[in-house]
């Protein structure tokens, strides 16, 4: 019922990074665990994405938009290729398999947000500029603010201006219904 309600109202659903899957790791200031935890954290949305694709939730609700908040984009080309491979190899043997490739469902209905990611410009062509949103993570201590413009230039400066504008402003405006503002 949640997926239907979100689809009917046009409300995007966001899955945000979580505590991770290992009870041995947590963010501990000054300890090695903090670096390991912070490295693994964005990848924790892999399970949510695979479930939404392979359970049929996205396909049954084509008007539903899923946001992977603070997930980063670097892991996604590999993960989408892996899901496509499993879909091709196992699709006929599963109790449910989407009728279209997982990577196409992603491009149609999922948006991943990212912050400072030096190779984002290389990954975005695989995901589609419409499926990505840049974030500053303000007011957290790891925010790019007040150097956000510099961060955008370093991260996305190699992309065409139209794609940069989508990723830094237009996709967000469209997602949250502010298309006609300003």
Strand order of the largest sheet: 1-2-3-4
Helices, by number, come to: 9
Main beta sheet: strand number and arrangement?
Answer: 4 strands, parallel
Instruction: Give start-end ranges of low-pLDDT stretches.
Output: none
Class based on secondary structure composition and strand pairing: alpha/beta
Distance between the termini: 35 Å
β content, as a range? 5-15%
The average pLDDT is 90
C-alpha Rg (nearest Å): 17 Å
Total strand segments: 4
Assembly category:
single chain
Please give a structural write-up.
Helices cover 47% and strands 9% of the residues. With 182 residues, it is α/β, with parallel strands linked by helices. A four-stranded parallel beta sheet has the order 1-2-3-4. β3, α7 and β4 (132-134) form a beta-alpha-beta unit. The mean pLDDT is 90.
Which SSEs are present, and which pair or pack?
Layout: H1 2-9, E1 13-16, H2 32-40, H3 46-54, H4 57-60, E2 66-69, H5 76-90, H6 102-109, E3 110-114, H7 120-127, E4 132-134, H8 148-156, H9 161-175
Parallel strand pairs: 1-2, 2-3, 3-4
Please outline what is shown here:
It contains nine helices and four strands. With 182 residues, it is α/β, with parallel strands linked by helices.
Descriptive terms for the model:
182 residues, globular, single chain, 47% helix, 4-stranded parallel beta sheet, alpha/beta, 9 helices
């Amino acid at each position: 019922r949640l997926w239907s309600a979100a689809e009917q109202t046009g409300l995007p659903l966001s899955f945000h990074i979580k505590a991770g899957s290992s009870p041995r790791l947590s963010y501990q200031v000054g300890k090695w665990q903090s670096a390991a935890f912070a490295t693994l954290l964005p990848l924790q949305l892999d399970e949510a994405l695979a479930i939404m694709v392979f359970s049929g939730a996205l396909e049954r609700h084509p008007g539903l938009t899923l946001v992977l908040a603070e997930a980063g984009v670097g892991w996604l080309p590999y993960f989408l290729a892996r899901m496509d491979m499993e879909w091709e190899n196992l699709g006929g043997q599963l109790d449910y398999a989407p009728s279209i490739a997982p990577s196409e469902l992603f491009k149609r209905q999922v948006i991943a947000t990212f912050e400072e990611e030096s190779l984002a410009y290389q990954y975005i062509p695989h995901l589609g500029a419409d499926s990505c949103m840049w974030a500053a993570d303000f007011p957290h201590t790891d925010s790019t603010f007040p150097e956000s413009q510099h961060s955008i230039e370093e991260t996305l400066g190699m992309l065409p201006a139209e794609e940069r504008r989508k990723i830094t402003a237009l996709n967000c405006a469209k997602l949250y219904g502010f298309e006609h503002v300003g």
